[in-house]
Amino acid sequence: MQHTFKPLLTLALAACCSLAQAAELTVMTSGGFTAAYQRLGPQYAARSGDTLTSVLGPSMGKAPQAIPNRLARGEHADVVIMVGYALDELIKQGKVDPASRVELADSRIGLVVKQGQPKPAIGTAAELKQTLLAAKSVAYSDSASGVYVQNELFSKLGIQPQLAAKSTMVERVPVAGEVARGQYQVGLQQVAELLPVPGVSYVGKLPEELQSVTRFAAGIPTGAAHPAEAKQLLDYLASPAVQDSVRATGLDSVPR
Predict the structure, then answer these.
(1) According to the model, what pLDDT value does residue 102 have?
(2) Residues 199-219: tens digit of each pLDDT
(3) Domain containing residue 95
(4) Per DSSP, what are the bridge partners of residue 214?
(5) 63, 172 in Cβ contact below 8 A?
(6) For a Cys-Cys bond, which of 70, 83, 171, 244 suits 59, CB 3.0-4.6 Å?
(7) Is 118 domain-assigned?
(8) How many other CB atoms are there within 10 angstroms of residue 212's CB atom?
(9) Per residue in 220-236, pLDDT tens?
């Protein structure tokens, strides 16, 4: 009888140890990398045994859902994925371990119109300028891409006065979703945030000379409950093996 139950006991102990090692990780992620994370997170959970709880919010801004505001309120996170310079600010504040910072992907800005509407020309600076001037309304996000559009892009094109009255910074919700609902004629946001939204037609990226490339990075908050497991997740998200999935969401791999 001892010989019969010993292998069963060994298996049971192994299962218990495996369960004990599994961690429940809370991951806060902002829009630009979210589509890639939603693809890769379940794959990582399946191979690691860890449970990932996802919390969505912008990298910056006044919205209570913004990651810095969540952390300021004392919300718990094991991993934060966000715009690189916003992450750097959290590192300066002592809220994220500087040694944990991992570069994930680069994101460029694109443009959408409501599905069924003609796609305007935006391949050159002159075409983009004309498209924005002709649009009845223009929307952009309250995160990194929208800050650039509002503070720099319109000025570079020499159309800031004309766009001031008909452009809107959309807080918290995806810009493409508002365009799909007919709230705005044209939407500007990071490509990876535009592509997953139904009801719009993706026109393309802004011309490279007018582009703003946003680096997405990740780190581990200083109060993380599972820093070792969090590091394993970040190593996976930045690994060469997952770059095809990252690029498929509209992001560009970080040169290594």
Answers:
(1) 97
(2) 999 999 999 999 999 899 999
(3) 22-106+214-253
(4) 107
(5) yes
(6) 83
(7) yes
(8) 16
(9) 999 999 999 999 999 99
Q: Is residue 117 part of a domain?
A: yes
Structure tokens at 202: 């993706």
**What is the rounded average pLDDT of the residues 186-204?**
95
| The pLDDT value given to residue 155 | 97
Measured over the CA atoms of residue 84, residue 89, residue 93 and residue 95, the dihedral's sign is negative
The 3-state DSSP class for residue 198 equals: coil
Same domain, 113 and 102: no
Q: Indicate if 113 and 140 belong to the same structural domain.
A: yes
Same domain, 100 and 227: yes
The answer to whether the CB of 33 falls within 8 A of the CB of 251 is yes
pLDDT tens for each residue of 69-106: 999 999 999 999 999 999 999 999 999 999 999 999 99
**Cβ distance 117 to 187 under 8 Å?**
no
Alpha carbon distance 51, 35 (integer Å): 18
Q: How far is CA 196 from the centre of its chain?
A: 12
Pair (101, 113) in one structural domain: no
Q: Is residue 76 part of a domain?
A: yes
Amino acid, single-letter form, for residue 146: G
Q: Is residue 186 part of a domain?
A: yes
